Structures are given as C-alpha cells and as structure tokens.
C-alpha cells in the first residue's frame, strides 16, 4: 500500500488518506516496519523515498493523537482548522492553514493560526523575513517572537545568532514548516524591555544574507544523548548543560556544520540549565549515521 502511494504521480496526500492508512496499520510500530521493509527492497527513487517519508510522517502524526483515529472527519484537527478559517476571508490564508503540519495546528489556538498564516502569507522571498513581537501570556519580561521566512541552510542557527546579537535570551523555540518551503520559527525570549521590532528585523535579514554565525571558541561542555529509537525515522538529540548568552546559536551552528538537518526543536531553560531536544536527520530525512553521531558529540562536548 505505502509503496503504491509513494509511486503515485502527482503525489496527493490528504488528511483523509493519512487517517485511512493510520486506521489500517493501527500502531506506530507497524508503520515503521512497513517503512523499513520498503527501504530494504531498495527499489525507490530519491523522489519516491521523500514521498514515502512524507506519507509516514503524516500517519505517525495521526497515530500520536489517538483521538484522531477511527474518525471519519478527523474531528479535533479539522475542527481547529475550520475554526481558524472562519476568522479569515482570504483564500490564501485558508490554504496556508489547511496545509499546516497537524502537530502545529493542534498546539495553537484558532486565533494564533490566523495570525501566523497572515505573517507567513505570501511566502517571503529568499533572504527576506517578516517578524512579529507579542508579550508572553505566561510570564512577565518574556516575549514571543514569530519569524516567517523561506527555508534555507542552517536557518535555526542563523536566527538564533540574530537574537543573540541583540542580547536576547532564548528560553523556548518551536519550528513549523510547510511543503512549499515556508517556515515559522517561534521563540520565547527573556528581556526587561520589549524587543525593538526594527532592530529585530534588521538582525534577522542580516543573518539570512550572511554566513553562519561563528561558534564560540573552546569547548561547549555539553552533555549529549543520541537516541535512535525514540522516533520512527529521525534521530533525537538531547543536549544539556549550563546556559549562557548565545548558547542556542552555538549549538545550532555546530549541528549545521555537522550536516545535520533540524526538523523540530524544544528549547527549555530551568535555573540556568538548558534541556534541549532536537529532532534531526541527514539530508535525505533518515536517521543520522554512527559517523555523524560521533561528529555531533565531538562538536558539542
């Protein structure tokens, strides 16, 4: 079944199709076994391999939320999308919301989805970005910075460097990507004053046009745990250590130099200790190799 869908041209993956596959396979282990079997056959082209990853990603996202299974309408996901779409009249905004990652949609309110879609749409040109700043609803002196741009190499490292250049301390970060290359990076930063929007805009644009920020000289002295079993097709990196200004920039720049692709990041700082988790892969979307794992450990220790 998965082999047949991956070979279909043009590839059309709908939420209904993904839910039907999830209902058929029932559990993440079965999905991963099917994926491994297809990879073992070694008869997929590079494009078909990427198509397979897209299908499996969608199925695993549904299986990660049991309330979406055995439902003919994908109620929670579709209800959230419909609620957001009723708040907007622009068909481009509707399409942006409809094509957003399921895990992203389910973790944001309808109002947030509309604000984000309006920031992302239309897709920024390469080297361009749109930036928005809002006060955090959870704590004083914390600010939410949303940055919409087009995906490019080492994007998270570049944006982290931009924030570090303004002495903004990142305490949380999240990433959402779209099939057309649109990316929304959401950072929670700590600052006594609201970050200046013009300064932010300039720093972000400079980071997108320039080289990757230089990593601080000397050892990073970080603890690295590499988990190849916590995710069906990506590698999970858990990185811990003492926080300092620019640490996120240095971590993400190091990962970029190791040719590691970051798909998702959870950045957490508690009592001056960072507890970061990165979902990463190689350039083909596969788990990173033993050699790449060793490079990452050397770069971060």
TrEMBL record:
Q: Where are the transmembrane segments?
A: none
Record-given protein name: Unannotated protein
Q: Does the keyword Membrane apply?
A: no
User: Known CDD domains for this protein?
Assistant: ACT_UUR-like_1 (cd04900)
Task: Enumerate the spans annotated as ACT domain.
Answer: 144-229, 236-301
* GO MF annotation list: [protein-PII] uridylyltransferase activity; hydrolase activity
Q: Which InterPro entries match?
A: ACT-like_dom_sf, ACT_dom, UTase/UR
> Which UniProt keywords are given for this protein, alphabetically ordered?
Hydrolase
């Amino acid at each position: 079944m998965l082999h047949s869908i991956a070979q279909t041209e043009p590839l059309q993956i709908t939420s209904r199709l993904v839910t039907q596959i999830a209902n058929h396979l029932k559990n993440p282990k079965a999905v991963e076994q099917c994926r491994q079997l297809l990879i073992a056959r070694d008869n997929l082209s590079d494009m078909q391999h990427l198509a397979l990853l897209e299908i499996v990603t969608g199925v695993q996202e549904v299986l990660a939320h049991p309330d979406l299974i055995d439902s003919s309408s994908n109620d929670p996901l579709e209800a959230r999308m419909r609620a957001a779409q009723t708040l907007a009249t622009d068909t481009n905004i509707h399409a942006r919301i409809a094509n957003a990652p399921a895990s992203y949609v389910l973790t944001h309110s309808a109002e947030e989805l509309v604000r984000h879609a309006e920031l992302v749409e239309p897709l920024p040109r390469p080297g361009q970005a749109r930036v928005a700043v809002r006060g955090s609803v959870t704590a004083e002196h914390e600010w939410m910075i949303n940055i919409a741009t087009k995906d490019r190499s080492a994007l998270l490292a570049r944006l982290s460097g931009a924030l570090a250049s303004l002495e903004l301390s990142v305490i949380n970060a999240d990433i959402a990507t779209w099939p057309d290359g649109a990316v929304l990076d959401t950072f929670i930063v700590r600052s006594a004053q609201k970050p200046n929007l013009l300064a932010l805009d300039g720093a972000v644009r400079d980071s997108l046009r320039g080289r990757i920020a230089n990593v601080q000289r000397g050892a990073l002295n970080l603890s690295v745990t590499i988990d190849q079993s916590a995710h069906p097709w990506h590698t999970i990196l858990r990185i811990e250590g003492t926080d300092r200004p620019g640490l996120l920039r240095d971590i993400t720049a190091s990962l970029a130099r190791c040719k590691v692709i970051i798909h998702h990041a959870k950045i957490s700082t508690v009592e001056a200790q960072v507890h970061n988790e990165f979902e990463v892969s190689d350039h083909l979307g596969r788990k990173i190799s033993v050699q790449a794992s060793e490079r990452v450990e050397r770069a971060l220790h």
